[in-house]
Write a structure and sequence with these properties.
955 residues; alpha+beta; six-stranded antiparallel beta barrel; four-stranded parallel beta sheet
């Protein structure tokens, strides 16, 4: 780096080019690629630190001091940054302006230990004006924000590492608990419980078509002899009426409909017109953007945030992690000017609109998500610079921002009431229609809406003719209609995000990751847009509710967020708060006390759910199943019945359970006899999928020719007590292909399956047999130790020796890699090697030739852009290599350790004193006052901490 330059460090590599271009040659812009260090795992803690830090990587007895280590990727990044810092005369920390960004800046400061002036540079959009203004208006590092982020990180480590092991032993290995993910999972489970307990009620109504001359419209029966007709909202969740209304059954509805049909006319008894207005919604926050992207674009929260991140880093929108609905003065002017240019002078009100956030923890210092700059670019003008998803999200943000500053929409709703005399009864119908007299903001944008259970009761909007009281209208198509009440709709990603925000659970930046975690952990699955909890989630939540009730209490979880906000504002002290949470206080039992006094947990009862006295649902190692006593052997093993994977919990009613129990056992079907072994071939449907198996035919009965009596077989001699039983030979078994069914598989196919692995032939060069076999990851060829993937299972039967040799003639990875390079990008900024998206044996993945990372569930190769690929590779490097599986080895003879100076792994141990308000000289923060003089950037030095030590070198 040239002498006299200023070093600017940002989080993401994709920001580097744009910001470098805006700042010019006097600056060098580099990236930290996210966090450079994190809490250590247990293996990374040196022996001399194990006693204090070994359980959590946190010394809970000494101010909750965290033990940080640099990741392998972080070490390389730090080396590059230190090299650049040597020639710099000033350091600008330009990470994101949220808590996470503030913490990354603090970690950089602690690790780099700069000897030049340090300034904190923040911006909420990547435009030339914004970047230049940020350089001129730097500030000090906000250590209260750092404290809040560190407290959250420690809190999550304590919670997860104390509670998750209980789930491993009592529910299933690999399960986990989390401060926010568990509360979100509980919300989805509770909604399903409500649906399971729901009792539907039936009611009938009558619809008709009324006409005046050539104009016709639909009307609905609302009253009979003055008594209001029942609607869905009149029933509670147990199917009981909440108020006095008239409930028509089918017979009464049909009788009344026939009488009205025979009358044929109705008189207008009233016409009522009411004016109304609709106001636009506030500009997008993180939460509302995720909701609308889900409703209008069918995007997951994670996908929406990934697209928004790219738009921000490319300079098209402002910072996308915010809970503020405020707009800057220049943004308001830009929105109003554009609305006037597109829709005329009346499109905007006389005074600009001002919005206040409804979120409990809104940070009003931030700005809402909007198009960047002082003038907004239209979607059509940027379409050539954005991919499909980026353009769709930008269009959404542009429209919402502009509409937020536009005039109210004005409308008039007209309701017509009709009366008809039929069978001695007075039937009243109503019809409603709305006409917009001024569309206002609706010219630009209308917010989507979530499904509601009462939607069936609403009249459809329609155009009504001009009528007056006393007019006689013709009635036709009088139709009785049956209705049933419905339970609350399941959460979608959009409605769950909304509910989390309303309850104050989580932060805007965490909603997408919360949903991603509960999906990937197997707690929730998706059916269309609906989120359905699995039986695993039911077991996990039941354990947490019964033994960790406070930790999944919504108010408690929301209170934690409030407390973290108080720490971020400097109103609470990190250490004092963590002591209360972990050790307990007058108001809270304390996490450690809860874990240490759990008592006995009955795992069998925990994982059992009675299904209406018909059966018991149990959740075991391999999933959920029904269990009933064995009618043939009540004292023996109970009968187990598989549950279809696509059956939602609320669909497993007692009637459905009985249906599964009574269904013929799929698979106990004899296909025929194997002519080579004389054994019977049977198809079965087991807990791990359908399969075929060879079984011995039933023994023939021996008949005494003289008497005709059946002779009992000689009893088998029992082995002596304590003698080892001889191992019974295992029957030949083979799984059905995915394309096969237990109902249609035949004997010929079954025999071919049982003959797998099949010898395809002998390689003429090596004289090694080539076999075709089915494995855990699909069909493949094997020649000695060399295996090659087959394209489909049918090839196991069909592939010839010539075709197999042709497969082996190709390079093992080269041909496949070349064929599966689905996308290619520029070089990765870290490895400096080209990035490719490939299709591998285990699915599509991103690689730079050094690091491979699988594309997560819910994303396709089409979703991957250069920026996403860079971030995925950076995250994978940060995690480090997968731990090697431990193998049993003989312990070497113990040797006295050589007395040698040890150097500790680059890991800073944050002592309580070092992290205290008095000693954080990074920004000279004090509890009583934070004076401007104490926050002078020129005199800022790194916080005094325990000297960095190196871990013992690996031998």
């Amino acid at each position: 780096m040239a002498e006299g330059k200023k070093l600017v460090i940002v989080e993401s590599p994709t920001k580097m080019k744009s910001i470098q271009g805006y700042l010019g040659d006097g600056y060098e812009v580099l990236s930290s690629v996210g966090h450079i260090r994190d809490l250590a795992d247990k293996k990374s803690i040196p022996a001399e630190k194990k006693q204090a830090y070994g359980k959590y990587s946190i010394d809970v007895d000494n101010g909750f001091d965290p033990y940080y280590v640099e990741s392998d990727r972080g070490k390389k990044t730090v080396t590059e940054l230190k090299r650049a810092l040597k020639g710099a005369d000033e350091l600008l920390l330009a990470t994101d302006e949220d808590r996470e960004g503030e913490a990354i800046a603090w970690h950089l400061l602690e690790t780099l230990k700069p000897k030049v002036p340090v300034k904190r540079m923040v911006f909420h959009e990547i435009t030339k004006d914004a970047i230049e203004a940020a350089v001129q208006n730097t500030r000090e590092l906000d250590l209260a924000l750092v404290d809040a982020q560190e407290t959250r990180r420690i809190l999550d480590r304590l919670y997860g590492w104390d509670v998750s092991p209980v789930l491993w032993f009592k529910v299933q290995q690999g399960t986990s608990a989390g401060r926010v993910q568990s509360a979100a999972t509980r919300m989805v489970v509770e909604r399903e419980r409500e649906r399971m307990a729901f009792v539907s009620a039936s009611y009938w109504g009558i619809d008709t078509v009324a006409a005046k001359a050539a104009d016709s419209f639909g009307a609905r029966l609302v009253r009979v002899d003055g008594a209001p007709l029942a609607r869905g909202t009149d029933f509670d969740d147990m199917g009981v009426l909440k108020k006095a209304v008239l409930v028509l059954d089918e017979a009464a509805a049909r009788e009344l409909a026939a009488a009205i049909e025979s009358t044929g006319t109705a008189t207008v008894s009233g016409v009522e017109a009411k004016p109304g207005t609709r106001s636009p919604r506030a500009p997008f926050t993180t939460s509302t953007l995720q909701q609308e992207a889900g409703r209008k674009l069918s995007m997951s929260a994670k996908h929406a945030m990934s697209v928004a991140q790219r738009l921000y880093e490319k300079g098209f929108i402002t910072y996308m992690r915010t809970d503020s609905t405020a707009l800057s003065k220049q943004a308001v002017e830009a929105a109003r000017e554009q609305a006037v240019a597109l829709y005329g002078d009346k499109a905007v009100p006389a005074t600009p609109r001002v919005y206040r956030s409804k979120s409990k923890n809104a940070q009003e210092a931030h700005e809402a998500i909007r198009p960047s700059g002082d003038t907004f670019r239209t979607p059509s003008s940027v379409s050539g610079e954005l991919d499909r998803d980026e353009l769709r999200v930008y269009d959404l943000i542009w429209k919402r921002t502009m509409a937020s500053q536009m005039s109210d929409a004005k409308y008039e709703t007209t309701t017509i009431t009709l009366e008809a005399e039929a069978a001695g009864k007075r039937a009243e119908f109503t019809a409603s229609g709305t006409v917009y007299t001024f569309k206002g903001f609706l010219e630009a944008y209308e917010e989507g809406r979530d499904e509601k259970r009462s939607d069936d009761d609403k009249n459809e909007e329609q155009s009504l003719p001009a009528v007056v009281a006393g007019d006689v209208l013709q009635l036709s198509d009088v139709e009785p209609k049956g209705h049933s009440t419905s339970p609350k709709p399941r959460y979608t990603e959009a409605s769950l995000v909304k509910a989390l925000e309303e309850k104050g659970i989580g932060r805007p930046s965490t909603f997408a990751s919360i949903i991603d975690v509960i999906l990937n952990r197997g707690y929730v699955t998706k059916r269309g847009q609906a989120l359905i909890p699995t039986w695993l989630a039911f077991s996990v939540i039941r354990l947490l509710e019964e033994h960790f009730a406070d930790l999944v209490d919504y108010d408690f979880t929301a209170a934690l967020e409030d407390d973290l906000d108080a720490i971020a504002r400097g109103e609470q002290q990190r250490v004092d708060w963590l002591k209360d949470f972990y050790f307990g206080s007058e108001d809270h039992v304390g996490l450690r006390n809860i874990v240490e006094n759990l008592g006995e947990i009955d795992a069998r009862a925990l994982n059992s759910t009675p299904i209406g006295g018909v059966a018991t649902l149990r959740f075991g190692k391999y999933g959920a199943y029904l269990e009933i006593p064995n009618a043939d052997d009540p004292e023996g093993e109970p009968r187990r019945i598989n549950i279809p994977e696509d059956l939602a919990p609320d669909e497993l009613t007692p009637a459905k359970a009985q249906e599964l129990i009574d269904a013929p056992v799929a698979g106990d079907r004899v296909l025929g006899e194997n002519p080579e072994t004389q054994k019977l071939v049977v198809v079965k449907d087991g807990r791990f999928g359908p399969y075929v198996q060879e079984v011995d035919p039933p023994a023939e009965e021996s008949v005494d020719e003289a008497t005709g009596e059946v002779v009992e077989a000689a009893p088998v001699e029992k082995p002596k007590r304590g003698a080892k039983k001889p191992a019974a030979p295992k029957p030949r078994t083979a799984s059905l292909f995915k394309s096969m069914s237990v109902d249609t598989v035949d004997l010929e196919t079954a025999l071919r399956l049982l003959d797998l692995p099949r010898t395809v032939g002998i390689d003429p060069e090596t004289e090694t047999p080539i076999t075709a076999q089915n494995g855990r990851y699909g069909p493949y060829l094997k020649k000695g130790t060399d295996s090659r993937t087959l394209q489909n299972e049918q090839q196991l039967f069909d592939i010839t020796l010539e075709e197999a040799l042709a497969v082996y003639a190709q390079p093992k990875y080269g041909a496949r890699a070349a064929a599966s390079a689905l996308k290619e990008f520029e070089a990765d900024p870290v490895s400096e090697k080209p990035i490719k998206v490939k299709d591998g044996r285990f699915g599509p993945y991103v690689t730079d030739g050094v690091t491979n990372v699988t594309i997560p569930r819910g994303q396709t190769p089409d979703d991957i852009t250069y920026e996403i690929a860079v971030q995925m590779l950076a995250d994978k490097r940060a995690k480090g290599p997968a731990p090697k599986r431990a193998t049993a080895r003989k312990a070497p003879a113990k040797k006295a350790p050589a007395k040698k100076a040890t150097t500790t792994k680059a890991a800073a141990t944050k002592t309580t004193a070092a992290k205290s308000a008095a000693s954080k000289t990074t920004a000279a923060k004090t509890t009583a006052a934070k004076t401007a003089a104490a926050k002078s950037a020129a005199t800022k030095t790194p916080a005094k901490r325990a000297p960095a030590k190196k871990a013992p070198e690996a031998k």
